[in-house]
Write a structure and sequence with these properties.
The chain is an alpha+beta fold. It contains 16 helices and 6 strands. It is rod-shaped, with a radius of gyration of 39 Å. Bound molecules: fe (ii) ion. Fe (ii) ion (FE2) is lined by residues 283-284, 312, 336-337.
C-alpha cells in the first residue's frame, strides 16, 4: 500500500505546514543557542583574563607581603628606639612605593601627635606642623584606629596641612594606625608625588606592616627603659663614689661640660657630642672597683697601687658593657688616660690613634684636676693650669686641641694672664 493511500492530500498538506513551522522554530532556537554559545565563550575568555589578572595581583601582593615580613623582622631585631623609628620611615616608602613618610607617636600627656621620624620631608615642615590628637589626618587615624586614603590631599578636609604637603611636592596620602594590644601608639602617614587611588591591597600591606612594627617599638621602648634604669644605677654609683671624696666632687660634670664645648668648637657631629654627654660623667666609673685606701691615699702611690688605679678605664668599660646604646662612647672611657706621645695607659696609643673624643676629654680632665684641690697638693690657678697644658702640648696632650681649649677659656673670660 503506498503513502498517498495512507495520508490523503489534505492531511499531507497539514503535516507539511506543521513540519515547516517546526523547522522555523528549530532554526530560531539554533540561532539562539549559537548566540548563547558565543556569549558563553566571550564570558569564559573575560573570566580567564580576570583570573589571570587576579592571580598576577595576588602574586605581587604575596611578594610585597614577604617584603613586609622581612623588613619587619629587621626592625624588630633593632633595640634602639630612635633607630627603629628611622628604619620604619625609610622602609614604608619602599613597601608602598611612595616618596615620603611621617611617623607620629601619641603623647598623651601633651595631648599631641609628636613626629618621631620622617623620610622625604623638609625640616621646615616638621617644625611647623604640630597636630593635636584627633586633628589632621594623623590625629584622626589615631582616634578612630582606621586607615584613611586620600587620593588628592588638597581635596581632603582631614589633611590639615594640605597646602604645606603640596608645597613639599606631594599630592596623595595614606595613613594607618600603629596598634599594639588594642592600644593606638601612633600613626604612619605616607605620601606620593602623584594623585593616587590606594588599593585595598596597599592599605592592607601598610596596616600589616604597622602592626608588625608596633611590636618592634614596644620591644625597643622596653629595652631602653631597662637600659636607662641600669644607667641610672651606674650614674648613682658614680655620683655616690664622687661624693665620698670632697676633692673630686663635681669633677665629672665639669669635665664633661668643658669637653662638650671643645667638641662643639671642633664641629664634632651631634652624635659625638651626645656620646661625650652620656659617657663623660661616667669616665671614672671604673674607680668603683678600686679600694678606697688606694684612691684616697694622701701620700705617694706604690708601683702596684698605681697599676691598680690604671685599670679603671678598662674596668669602667667592662661595667658598662651591657649598655649597648653607650657602646660608641666607650673609647672615651677606655682611652681618656692615653697620651699624645704614646706613654699613657691602658694601651699606649700615639697621637691620633687615640679617638678624638678621648683626646678632647684628656685635656678637659687634666685642666679640671689641676684647678681642683687634691689631698696631696693645693689647686693651681687657671693661669698656671693653662701654662701646664701648653707645656705638655705635644707630649701628654694633642697640641691642636690644647690651643682650641685655651681659646674657649679665654672667650669665657677666665683669668689666664
Ligand atoms: Fe680617669
Amino acid at each position: 500500500m503506498n503513502q498517498q493511500a495512507k495520508f490523503p492530500p489534505r492531511q499531507l498538506k497539514k503535516l507539511n505546514r506543521k513540519l515547516n513551522s517546526s523547522n522555523k522554530s528549530l532554526t530560531s532556537k539554533t540561532e539562539h543557542l549559537t548566540k548563547a554559545f558565543a556569549e558563553i565563550r566571550r564570558l569564559n575568555k573575560s573570566l580567564e583574563e580576570q583570573i589571570k589578572n587576579k592571580s598576577l595581583e595576588l602574586n605581587i601582593a604575596m611578594k610585597e607581603l614577604n617584603t613586609v615580613y622581612t623588613v619587619s623582622r629587621e626592625v624588630i631585631s633593632t633595640l634602639d628606639v630612635q633607630e627603629v623609628f628611622s628604619l620604619i620611615a625609610k622602609t614604608v616608602c619602599a613597601i608602598i612605593n611612595t616618596k615620603a613618610c611621617i611617623l607620629r607617636m601619641i603623647d598623651r600627656d601633651k595631648k599631641c601627635m609628636t613626629i618621631v621620624s620622617s623620610h622625604g620631608i623638609s625640616a621646615k615642615y616638621i617644625d611647623n606642623t604640630p597636630l593635636k590628637i584627633g586633628e589632621g589626618l594623623s590625629g584622626i587615624v589615631a582616634t578612630t584606629g582606621k586607615p584613611i586614603a586620600c587620593p588628592q590631599v588638597t581635596k581632603e578636609e582631614s589633611v590639615k596641612y594640605s597646602y604645606y604637603i603640596n608645597g613639599e611636592g606631594y599630592q596623595s596620602a595614606l595613613g594607618v594606625p600603629i596598634v599594639f594590644n588594642n592600644e593606638i601608639l601612633g600613626t604612619i602617614v605616607t605620601y606620593d608625588n602623584s594623585m593616587r587611588n590606594y588599593t585595598k591591597v596597599e592599605v592592607m600591606l601598610l596596616s600589616t606592616f604597622a602592626s608588625q612594627i608596633a611590636v618592634a617599638i614596644k620591644n625597643a621602648q622596653l629595652h631602653t627603659k631597662v637600659h636607662l634604669n641600669y644607667l641610672d644605677t651606674v650614674n648613682a654609683l658614680a655620683l655616690a663614689m664622687e661624693a665620698r671624696d670632697p676633692y673630686t666632687h663635681g669633677h665629672a660634670e665639669r669635665v664633661t661640660a668643658y669637653a662638650i664645648e671643645i667638641a662643639r668648637v671642633e664641629s664634632l657631629s651631634k652624635k659625638q657630642v651626645q656620646l661625650i654627654q652620656n659617657c663623660g660623667k661616667l669616665h671614672d666609673v671604673g674607680k668603683i672597683a678600686i679600694a678606697d685606701s688606694i684612691l684616697r691615699k694622701p701620700g705617694p702611690l706604690t708601683e702596684n697601687e698605681r697599676s691598680l688605679i690604671q685599670l679603671h678605664p678598662v674596668k669602667g668599660v667592662q661595667m658598662l658593657a651591657p649598655l649597648k646604646f653607650l657602646e660608641q662612647g666607650f673609647p672615651l672611657i677606655q682611652y681618656h688616660h692615653e697620651r699624645f706621645d704614646g706613654e699613657g695607659y691602658p694601651q699606649g696609643l700615639k697621637k691620633t690613634d687615640t679617638p678624638v673624643i678621648a683626646r678632647i676629654f684628656a685635656c678637659a680632665d687634666a685642666f679640671d684636676a689641676m684647678t681642683s684641690d687634691r689631698p696631696y697638693r693645693s689647686k693651681l690657678t687657671c693661669k698656671q693650669a693653662v701654662i701646664e697644658l701648653e707645656k705638655n702640648a705635644g707630649t701628654q696632650f694633642d697640641p691642636y686641641l690644647v690651643k682650641k681649649f685655651i681659646s674657649i677659656l679665654q672667650r669665657k673670660n677666665i683669668k689666664l694672664k
